[in-house]
Queue: 2 jobs
Job 1
Amino acid sequence: MSDPRNATGAVNLDEKLATFSECWSPRVVARMNDVEFKLVKMHGDFVWHSHADTDEVFLVVKGEMEIGFRDRNVLLREGEMFVIPRGVEHITRAREECHALIVEPRDVVNTGDAGGELTARNDVWV
Amino acid sequence: MSDPRNATGAVNLDEKLATFSECWSPRVVARMNDVEFKLVKMHGDFVWHSHADTDEVFLVVKGEMEIGFRDRNVLLREGEMFVIPRGVEHITRAREECHALIVEPRDVVNTGDAGGELTARNDVWV
């Protein structure tokens, strides 16, 4: 079932981004089947981690970010997206604050197998 | 598995949109698990239809579109998204050409239960 919070109207990404300021703390804005769309603000370095069971998508809404892999880095600018394959260790980084839309199954933990203090609560909607 | 075409670098939505001109003919640009990300150009009215087994997401990249339901219309502007619930009859419309990112399971047929001449081939990548 779709979440009823999806049912009333358009989800404006800029308006949703204006409702929070914390970095590395994804906010859910929509759900399609079991897939969630989460806005995240990033600044600095996240933690190295992987997700054993799922791919993960980042679509940059504002600014620039880097997805680091052990053998290369992928730069993402506004209007660019990337699919991080399941099981592949990665880190997200942003020299200046960057805003992105994450698309992934609803139960994915942001720090994957790494855990730690940057682990965010899931299913926090804005 | 992720499609290998995802693996090489960032997917730039504007660059992908520049590779085709046909309306109502979605092009796949990425795959996350069994979910595909498809760019579509729209102008005019599509056909009334529904998808019995899945929700469907539209995220407007350029222009404006309307998602019509039997009891209301939802206007989507650039940077806005909407989740069409499974099983709900709808039609997409655009007075001027509009570009959107569709997110849905990979085997979804664009015309759903309606079929007809606007039915597009699936899994066409750009």
Job 2
Amino acid sequence: MKQSDIDDILINPDQYLRNVLVDNVIFGYHNKELKVLLQQPIALDKWTVTGGYIKKTESIEEAANRIAYSRTGLKNLFFQQFRAFGNPTRSIDGSKNAKNFTKLSGIEVPDDLWIFDYFVSVGFYTLTEFSMVKIEKGVYEAECQWWPIDDLPALMFDHEHIISEALKALRLHIAHYPIGYELLSEKFTLPEIHSLYETILGKPLDDRNFAKRLMATGIIVKLNETKRIGAHRSPFLYRFDKEKYNEGLENGAALAF
Amino acid sequence: MKQSDIDDILINPDQYLRNVLVDNVIFGYHNKELKVLLQQPIALDKWTVTGGYIKKTESIEEAANRIAYSRTGLKNLFFQQFRAFGNPTRSIDGSKNAKNFTKLSGIEVPDDLWIFDYFVSVGFYTLTEFSMVKIEKGVYEAECQWWPIDDLPALMFDHEHIISEALKALRLHIAHYPIGYELLSEKFTLPEIHSLYETILGKPLDDRNFAKRLMATGIIVKLNETKRIGAHRSPFLYRFDKEKYNEGLENGAALAF
């Protein structure tokens, strides 16, 4: 059986930071749908976001990336930190569940082990194209799958709150920074990028205003090509101006929807 | 001698979370000046923001408030969490300085004590009216004082980076949420609130646009009163509409400067 980080922290506790971990909220977009990646650990009946412990030799950002890869097979995600969560009630559910969990490891652990104390969770979110992802679930997970953000299963600890705070941060972020480069085809129509923004913001956006504001940022360029989507409908295609797009990522490109 | 939280964590290590602490970036505004509160610990030659350890019985928000009060005498501050900082290089400076520091306590501590490991810092910022604050410095601080944000002294660890990230978050925040209620007199002129926004954003704002956008949010109300500031200058006074202001704090009141 493949070793998990739960086993590792029990065997090598001195290699990990105590009382602090990372939780990754992995959002996925595909064709007008926004989902979030959740896992259901074997020993438990509820779902969680994917998270894990931090090694003393790595930064919290490196931990977020290592955990995303080791527990889901996802690589090179652009993680954005949004906030940390920490209060003593986290350990009530946490310690009960952690005890069920550690039983799986087969390692004898005392009831007052420090990993049953309260952990501060540093939350990261990312946004990816979910149709392109091949999920590889972890050793101790019964399931790992995408859930629509408006139809989530029962969640453990404060993970529902963590997801809602991540979504708030993502929505604030896209009012200030460009998105779409890895979420749309290389060439796309205005209705396609319009749907992307509407889906993530969770609200309708006026067509004209949207197009006007987006064009004003300079991050997209109109091509001399159309896409045939019906007998009488051939909207123009657009692509990102990568230089302006990267500038926007660096310095902001306010859309203020 | 009054006991400090450094002493307490050495005497009662089991009462504190390990490897995670809070750092408070306390911004102060007064009459066109933006400052930040820094302390200079007795054993060290550089300055730091004010921070401290988290008790297992309190949330990270409660810790931020307790530390602000115990180390600076500041009460009832509205703290906003902005981000966490964590990487192994934090412990290089950190452990050297922490060792100088623990010598002060007179308590014998081994060289490999866990408090010399790397700590994840959860950053909070707040904004207050600095002319109304009576600072009470901590037991182990040589100095604790306000510094202009564009003229900071030499700072320890990554605290310069922490302050710059806090300022970025504050600036993003005021584009979406109202500020000013505790920073201006009950009645104020448009030039006064205009200066407040310009000072915090660190850039000039067009007079007309500023007034138009601010009035459009409904958070300020024009009074039928003027302020006499010169023989021929009597600008109108304004006050906040507290209900609209609170609504804005809850749901946002986009100014997008």
